[in-house]
Design brief:
With 74 residues, the chain is mainly α. It has helices at residues 3-11, 18-27, 36-51, 56-65. The mean pLDDT is 91.
């Protein structure tokens, strides 16, 4: 995991600050992920779950499993 990942999360407005970014990385268990692109995909999925209204714990679990966010019903 690179320091650029922290800044990317802040720049993309996924995290508010470094502390928030670290909490997301820890919650997603990405602290040993060597591939930043894979980490980014998981982080975006987590943010999508949070934006869909899931609580953090559930969003972490679903993002780690790679579960796609269902499309909204028309």
């Amino acid at each position: 995991m690179s320091n650029e990942l922290f800044q990317w999360m802040i720049d993309e407005k996924i995290a508010k600050n470094g502390f928030n970014a670290a909490a997301i990385l820890n919650g997603l268990q990405l602290y040993n992920e060597p591939d930043d692109e894979k980490a980014k995909a998981t982080i975006r999925l987590y943010r999508d779950w949070r934006n869909a209204g899931e609580k953090s714990k559930v969003a972490f679990e679903k993002a780690i499993k790679g579960e796609a966010v269902p499309a909204p019903m028309p």
